[in-house]
């Protein structure tokens, strides 16, 4: 059983939902990434999605695009991101880490070499935004060899047939994109999300995480009523961007926002 599955199953046994923050590795500076990740865990993160900076992040809105640009200004590479995971693992062997990014850096490294290096670093899952299941056989074989969960996206427009195809090759959890468009865009309709999740549960037994459009405690609480996990990215990256010249303030502001979401989610579960 993977660290991701263990984490989600433990939370489910407690009647709680997973909180999954996303940060871009190397933003605002590489040396802050590991301390920030530890601070996120202290603030209530159950799983961390660590973004691999990429020059053309097509699924991401301007906030996360700028985060990638800031990281790339420091020449942060996939290998450096793996080194950050190794450093994180020196003091945290429990919290699952999912690498989120695009296929090109993985292809450059080579699927086998990437899977091996990711496993040795302590990576638990990989979400490759631009990798369709039809083209994933080779990398899926490599990830499976090292017990790394492949995480896939589901969109509001994904057909039932395709949902089943995606969920057959996914593990850990699936990530439902709650709004049409890029990260940070659109208005979250919690009622529509709940209806969609109820439908998805008829098609898969995998845990369902929801991201895109979650900005505060209220939206996290609303999504947690239906989902197994709440994913938040742009709202946190916005705090990083605003305070990027003061690293102590970055950690404090990001931690406070995440803690408010954790509290709101747990309050909802207590009252439900």
Topology:
Blueprint: H1 3-13, E1 18-24, H2 30-43, E2 48-51, H3 62-73, H4 78-89, E3 97-101, H5 103-109, H6 111-121, E4 125-128, H7 137-145, E5 149-151, E6 153-154, H8 160-169, E7 174-177, H9 190-200, E8 208-211, H10 217-224, E9 229-232, H11 234-242, H12 247-271
Parallel strand pairs: 1-2, 1-9, 2-3, 3-4, 4-5, 6-7, 7-8, 8-9
Write a short abstract of this structure.
This protein has one domain (3-260): Aldolase class I (TIM Barrel, Alpha-Beta Barrel). It contains twelve helices and nine strands.
**Globular, elongated, flat, extended or rod-shaped: what is the shape?**
globular
The main β sheet shows up as:
9 strands, parallel
Q: What is the average per-residue confidence, as pLDDT, rounded to a whole number?
A: 93
How do the strands line up in the largest sheet? 5-4-3-2-1-9-8-7-6
**What is the percent of helical residues?**
40-55%
Keywords:
alpha/beta; globular; TIM Barrel; single chain; 272 residues
Describe the structure.
By secondary structure, the chain is an alpha/beta fold. It has one domain: Aldolase class I (TIM Barrel), CATH 3.20.20.70. The chain contains twelve helices and nine strands. A nine-stranded parallel sheet has the order 5-4-3-2-1-9-8-7-6. Strand 6, helix 8 and strand 7 form a beta-alpha-beta unit. Helix 10 packs across helix 12 and helix 11 packs antiparallel against helix 12. The two termini are 29 Å apart.
């Amino acid at each position: 059983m993977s660290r991701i599955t263990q984490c989600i199953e433990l939370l489910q046994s407690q009647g709680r939902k997973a909180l999954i923050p996303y940060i871009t590795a190397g933003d605002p500076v590489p040396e802050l990434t590991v301390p920030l990740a530890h601070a996120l865990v202290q603030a209530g993160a159950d799983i961390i999605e660590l973004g691999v900076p990429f020059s053309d992040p097509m699924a991401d809105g301007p906030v996360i695009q700028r985060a990638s640009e800031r990281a790339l200004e420091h020449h942060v590479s996939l290998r450096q991101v793996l080194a950050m995971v190794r450093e994180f693992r020196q003091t945290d062997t429990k919290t699952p880490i999912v690498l989120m990014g695009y296929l090109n850096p993985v292809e450059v490294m080579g699927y086998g070499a990437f899977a091996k290096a990711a496993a040795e670093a302590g990576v638990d899952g990989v979400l490759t935004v631009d990798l369709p299941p039809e083209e994933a056989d080779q990398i899926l074989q490599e990830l499976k060899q090292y017990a790394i969960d492949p995480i896939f996206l589901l969109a509001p427009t994904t057909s039932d047939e395709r949902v089943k195809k995606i969920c057959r090759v996914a593990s850990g959890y699936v990530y439902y994109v709650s709004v049409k468009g890029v990260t940070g865009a659109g208005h979250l309709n919690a009622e529509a999300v709940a209806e969609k999740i109820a439908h998805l549960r008829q098609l898969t037994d995998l845990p369902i995480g929801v991201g895109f459009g979650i900005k505060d405690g209220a939206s996290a609480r609303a999504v947690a009523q239906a989902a197994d996990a709440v994913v938040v990215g742009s709202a946190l990256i916005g705090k990083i961007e605003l305070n990027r010249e003061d690293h102590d303030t970055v950690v404090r502001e990001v931690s406070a926002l995440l803690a408010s979401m954790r509290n709101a989610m747990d309050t909802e579960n207590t009252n439900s």
